[in-house]
Amino acid sequence: MELTQMTINDLLDRIGPGDGYVYLPGDVPPRELANLLDGRYGAPRTLVLDGFTDPTADESRGAALLAPFEGRVVMMRAWAYGDQWVGTGAVRDSEGTERPVLVVARRAVPEPLPVAPAPGSGEGPGDCSGEGFDWNERLERVTGWTGPARRPDVDWADVEARLGGALPGDYKRMVETFGEGAFDGFLGLNQEPWTDLRKEGLLIWAGTEHEDLYCWRVDGDDPDRWPVVVRSFDGGDVPFGCGAAEFVCRVLTDTRHPFTMARYFDTHWFMSYREPVD
């Protein structure tokens, strides 16, 4: 079997929307399948390794993936995605033969909190309540980032000269720390702001696979006070009274945020597009 994202789509369609699993041909490389799922869903949680189950594995951590196999799991990795758990690994079938498997199980997702107050109301995630807080440090903790800065030597003087002005410090620190890639494999960090919307007073510093553009409203001489504006895929603008790093933190962790990813991922990470240079 040739493994591609299309193959995974076909296999998931065979399993259906509820709980289920499918045994895979014996020549399917488990690591290759896991890599494809990594690319789709992000970093997995290991539930079982060499037949030993993680003692913390419960319903909130993907234990439902193990239920059909009654202790016969040899290895299982799990991904949380919306209201589903997706797992792959190896299990022993009823005859004791070890076989690769793809599993899907329902996932209980907490009910969303009440709709967040409108940005600018002074009552919720649309407002900047974090002045003086180190949002970049928090972002490193949220994503589990422990590596060295990926781009510590960015020539910001050159970038800013070409753009015609200074850029927000929290954004520059994000680029220096994380480099080229995407938060949760979804929110892509531009290494330089895009100027496509400059005539509308916007600079684009990030974007998503859904074609939402994360911008600043270039308003005033102090770039650290430029507010974030989301240009949604339908052309509408949603303003937020906070900077880029705070915005990303809230998108990752605040279930009330209008653009939240917190309801879809239990853990957060930064997917690097390039390996660090020694």
Q: Which percent bin holds the helix content?
A: 10-25%
Average pLDDT across residues? 85
What sequence of helices (H) and strands (E) makes up the elements?
Answer: HEHEEEEEHHHEEEEEEHE
Percent of residues in β-strands: 25-35%
Strand order of the largest sheet: 12-11-10-9-8-7-13
Distance between the termini: 37 Å
> How many individual β-strands?
13
Rg for CA atoms: 21 Å
The best one-word shape is elongated
Major sheet size, sense and barrel closure: 7 strands, antiparallel
Which residues form runs of ≥5 with pLDDT under 50? 110-126
Helical segment count: 6
The computed structural class is alpha+beta
Structural overview:
With 278 residues, the chain is of the alpha+beta class. 22% of the residues lie in helices and 26% in strands. The chain has helices at 5-15, 30-41, 135-143, 156-163, 169-178, 244-253, and strands spanning 20-23, 45-49, 52-53, 73-81, 84-92, 98-106, 181-183, 187-194, 202-208, 213-217, 228-231, 237-240, 270-272. A 7-stranded antiparallel beta sheet has the order 12-11-10-9-8-7-13, covered by helices on one side. A hairpin with a 5-residue loop joins strand 11 (228-231) and strand 12.
Please supply descriptive tags for the structure shown above.
278 residues, alpha+beta, 7-stranded antiparallel β-sheet, 6-stranded antiparallel β-sheet, 13 strands, 22% helix
Tell me the layout of helices and strands:
Blueprint: H1 5-15, E1 20-23, H2 30-41, E2 45-49, E3 52-53, E4 73-81, E5 84-92, E6 98-106, H3 135-143, H4 156-163, H5 169-178, E7 181-183, E8 187-194, E9 202-208, E10 213-217, E11 228-231, E12 237-240, H6 244-253, E13 270-272
Antiparallel strand pairs: 1-6, 2-3, 2-4, 4-5, 5-6, 7-8, 7-13, 8-9, 9-10, 10-11, 11-12
